[in-house]
Amino acid sequence: MSNPFRNRVFGCVLIKSINSNFNADFSHQPRTLPDGTVYATDKALKYSVRNFLKNAFPTEKIFYSKSMDGKMQPRTLDERYQSYFGDYPKMTAIDKGEYLIFKSEGGQITPIVTAQPKPNDIKKFFKSLDDDDEWREYQSKLPKKDDKQRKKEEATTLLKASKELFEEDEDFFFYIDKANKPKKFNGDFDILNGLMKKLDELSTGGVDRKKITENLLTCLDVRLFGGTYAGVTNLSFHGPLQITHGINRFPDNNIFSEQISSPFRNPGEKNQDSTMTTLGSQSKLREGHYVFHFSINPQNLDELVRLSGGSPLLVSDVEKAKAGLSRGVTLYDSAAKAGSENELMLWVQLKEDSMLVLPSFVELLKVAKDDKRTIDLSPISEILKRDHVKSAVEKIEIWYDKATTTLSGMPDEAIFLDINA
Fold first, then answer.
1. Cα–Cα distance list, 406 to 17, 287, 371, 372, 374 (Å)
2. Residue 214: closest CA among 290, 357, 347, 310
3. Helix/strand/coil percent split, the chain, to 5
4. 179-212 per-position pLDDT tens digit
């Protein structure tokens, strides 16, 4: 079995953006805070990491990623699940030896509905049926909530004592009422068989949430970032890898716009003799250096892993996340994001038993407005060299390109790695 990753990590990712629009708002402008500072959402960085993982590790499942069906339409959340895992697993009810409804088929007594479905669930189910649905007529004949559940052996004995219910080779459904009398459901056996299966689904919740959770934890991006699943069932995953918004730490926030033209005429132009093509505009940031703080806490997944039997965060997962965090933006070179690339990643890994908590690195990192755009790590280094912090740290890594990036105030004992290797 692969090794679980048990260390906590703090760090930051620095994205350089020159004449680019790394994360536009819905008006296609670079996003800005009320004071004019340019920023980017955590989703922008996560998107680039997922895109990197999907391309660099094609055998890994990346769940929260756009995919198309056979009609070239984006899949729904449930369709995405089914494209990876097939039909939803059905919940298997816990056999406590007590049952609400039984089936007599071929002389054999079989428990069918293992628990009392919630009255609201039953009401909603019958309300959803068409007016002419044959199941509708059985709503008023279902066992009431206060009818006792019985063990299979007792139900069999009571049924045999009520010979008036029997007919040779007859198949039917029954329950035991408060007076200890078997009550038979009169009606078409096949129709009732379908109804009882549906009631059993209602009593168990229908789909197997544990199995769905186990399946989703086979997806690399779910093990890293977590996610919310609001499809056939509702699930929430608190991912180990958490990322903040990125803030431009370069002193300037200069945004400019430029006109662009399309090679095609505007179809809405009333003058059919017009030779003018469609005009538009695009906005970009002259220069920005976005800093995203991130942290990793593998314990965020522990309870879900324990309950579902799914995979925890693995050492190999973290190595892949490192690659995505340090190279994902550079790889994703779209027209709007051209000019945005990974500039630096700082990785501070704590010892496994450490309970140390470090502050966000966003406001501590500075980018100077000099010829080399020097990145000053001094405030971070001041924190990392404190005795109680130093004793809790297992390793410090700095990923950057020495040919294009200048650093100052680096932490002691840092390991330097090539961000483009």
1. 16, 16, 10, 6, 5
2. 310
3. 30, 30, 40
4. 888 888 888 888 988 888 888 777 666 688 889 9
- The b/e string for 129-166 (b: 16+ C-beta within 10 A; e otherwise) is eeeeeebeebeeebbeeebebbeeeebbebbeeeeebe
Q: Smallest Cα–Cα separation from 348: which of 332, 364, 335, 336?
A: 364
Cβ(393)–Cβ(350) below 8 Å? yes
Residue 288 burial by Cβ neighbours in a 10 Å radius (0-12, 13-18, 19+): buried
In whole angstroms, give the CA distance from residue 13 to residue 81.
31
CA distance 295 to 11: 6
Beta strand segments in 212-365, E: 226-230, 234-238, 241-243, 246-248, 255-265, 277-296, 340-350
For 224-259, b where at least 16 C-beta lie within 10 A, e where not — what string?
Answer: bbbbebebebebebebbbbbbbbbbbbeebebeeee
Q: Judge whether residue 389 has pLDDT over 90.
A: yes
Q: Which three-class secondary structure state does DSSP give residue 234?
A: strand
Predicted structure pTM score: 0.75
Report whether 34 contacts 12 (CB < 8 A): no
**Under 8 Å between Cβ of 12 and 362:** yes
Q: Are 315 and 4 in contact (CB under 8 A)?
A: yes
Average pLDDT over residues 229-233: 86
CB of 217 within 8 A of CB of 223?
A: yes
pLDDT digits (tens, 9 = 90+) for 10-29: 999 999 999 999 999 988 89
Residues 6+ apart with CB under 8 A from 418: 399, 400, 401, 402
32 in Cβ contact with 253 (< 8 Å): yes
Q: Which of 260, 284, 98, 72 is nearest to 175 (CA)?
A: 98
Radius of gyration (C-alpha) of the chain in whole angstroms: 31
Listed residue (99, 100, 121, 101) closest to 185, CA to CA: 101
Q: Tokens 């680019």 correspond to what residue?
A: 20
Pure H helices in 309-386: 315-331, 378-384
What CA–CA distance (Å, rounded) separates 350 from 348? 7
Confidence tier at 232 by pLDDT (50, 70, 90):
confident
- 287 strand-pairing partners: 18
